[in-house]
Design brief:
340 residues, mainly alpha, 15 helices, 2 strands, 63% helix, 1% strand, BamD, BamD-like
C-alpha cells in the first residue's frame, strides 16, 4: 500500500472527525427557505448540512408541501454521506408511511444501493480486498432489496440497473460459497464442504461458480469415500465443464491436498518415528479409547468373579454371531441391519 493512500485515509478520517459536529439550523427560516437551502447543500455536496435542514423541515412542517419530498431526499443525503444504516432506516420509514407514493420505487432502489455499497467503505476503496472472501450479509440484503424492487415495480426506471446489480451480487454470493467450501476442505469438514458446493449447484445456477461447486462436491465425496456420489458429480462436471481446471486429461485433480494427520513427532522425523498407526476407515481415536478401556476393565476382573462356564459362553456367543452373519439376507446387508 502506497504512502499517499495512507495519508489520504488519515486526512479523510480527520476531516470527518472535525465535521462531525451537528450543524445549526436557523429557527426563523420558513418552509420554502429551509427546502431551498437543503437543495443548495445537496448540490454543493454538503450532506451534513442538508441532512440537518431536511430533518428540521420535516419536524417543523410535518404536513407542509415539502414534507414527503424532504423524507425522500433525506434517504439520498444519508446515502451520499456514507451512512448506510441511516439511509436504509429512512427508506424503510418512507415505504411504511407512503406505500402508494409515485416515487416509492426510488426508496426501494436507494435502500438496495445502501446495502450494495456497505461493504465498499473508505478502506475497501484503497486496499486490495477480495469481497468474495468477506461476510456476504450486506450483499445478500442488497440482492433481496433489489429483488423486491424488480418484482413490485418491473417497469420502474431503476429496474434495469437493479437487475444488472443482482447478476453481480449472485456471482459474488456464489464465489463466497466456494471459498467457504474450500476452507472446510482444509479443515477436513467434508460434509460441510459438500453442502456448500451443492447449494451453489442447486440455487445459484447461471453463475461462473457452478463448475467450482461440482468440483467441490467431487472432492468432498471422494474424501468421504462416497464413491457413487463422487462419480455422479464427476460425470456432471465432465459433461458440462470439460475445461474446468480440476480436470487434467479427463482425470480429476483435487484442489486441496490430502490432510497430513500424523503427529508432530512423525512429521519432524519424516515418518521415521510414528507415534500412532493410521486409523482404519470409520474409526476414530475416541472409539479406540473406549474399546481399549473395555478390554482393560475386562482383564482386571478377578478369576473368582468370572462365571464357571466363561469359555463356553464366549464360544457360544462367537458361534451365534457367525451363524447370524451367515443367515443374514442380501436385503439385511444392504440396509445395514436396520430392518432385521
Amino acid at each position: 500500500m502506497q504512502v499517499k493512500h495512507l495519508l489520504l485515509i488519515a486526512t479523510l478520517v480527520l476531516t470527518a472527525a472535525c465535521s462531525s459536529n451537528k450543524p445549526e439550523v436557523d429557527e426563523n427560516l420558513s418552509e420554502t427557505e429551509l427546502y431551498q437551502q437543503a437543495q443548495d447543500d445537496l448540490n454543493s455536496n454538503s450532506y451534513n448540512n442538508a441532512i440537518a435542514k431536511l430533518k428540521a423541515l420535516e419536524s417543523r412542517y410535518p404536513f407542509g408541501r415539502y414534507a414527503e419530498q424532504a423524507q425522500l431526499e433525506l434517504i439520498y443525503a444519508y446515502y451520499k454521506n456514507v451512512e448506510p444504516e441511516a439511509a436504509k432506516s429512512a427508506a424503510e420509514r418512507f415505504i411504511r408511511l407512503h406505500p402508494q407514493h409515485a416515487n416509492v420505487d426510488y426508496a426501494y432502489y436507494l435502500k438496495g444501493l445502501a446495502s450494495f455499497d456497505q461493504d465498499r467503505g473508505l478502506i475497501a476503496r484503497f486496499l486490495p480486498l477480495d469481497l468474495t472472501k468477506r461476510d456476504p450479509g450486506a450483499a445478500r440484503d442488497s440482492y433481496n432489496e433489489f429483488a423486491q424492487l424488480t418484482s413490485r415495480y418491473p417497469n420502474s426506471r431503476y429496474a434495469p440497473d437493479a437487475k444488472a446489480r443482482m447478476i453481480y451480487l449472485r456471482n459474488l454470493l456464489a464465489a463466497y460459497e466456494i471459498h467457504a467450501g474450500r476452507y472446510y476442505l482444509t479443515r477436513q469438514a467434508y460434509v460441510a464442504a459438500a453442502n456448500r458446493g451443492r447449494y451453489v449447484v442447486e440455487n445459484l445456477q447461471e453463475t461462473p461458480s457452478v463448475g467450482d461447486g461440482l468440483a467441490l462436491m467431487v472432492e468432498a465425496y471422494q474424501r468421504l469415500d462416497l464413491d457413487d456420489l463422487a462419480a455422479t458429480s464427476l460425470e456432471t462436471l465432465k459433461l458440462n465443464y470439460p475445461d474446468h481446471p480440476t480436470l487434467v486429461d479427463g482425470q480429476f485433480v483435487p484442489v486441496v491436498e490430502e490432510a497430513d494427520n500424523r503427529s508432530w513427532l512423525a512429521k519432524a522425523t519424516l515418518g521415521l518415528i510414528e507415534s500412532d498407526a493410521p486409523l482404519p476407515p470409520g474409526e476414530t481415536r475416541a472409539s479406540q479409547d473406549v474399546i481399549r478401556q473395555y478390554e482393560d476393565a475386562k482383564e482386571e476382573i478377578p478369576d473368582e468373579l468370572q462365571p464357571e462356564n466363561q469359555d463356553e459362553v464366549e464360544e457360544d456367543l462367537e458361534s451365534e454371531a457367525e451363524g447370524n452373519a451367515d443367515d443374514r439376507s442380501w436385503f439385511s446387508y444392504m440396509t445395514f441391519g436396520l430392518f432385521d
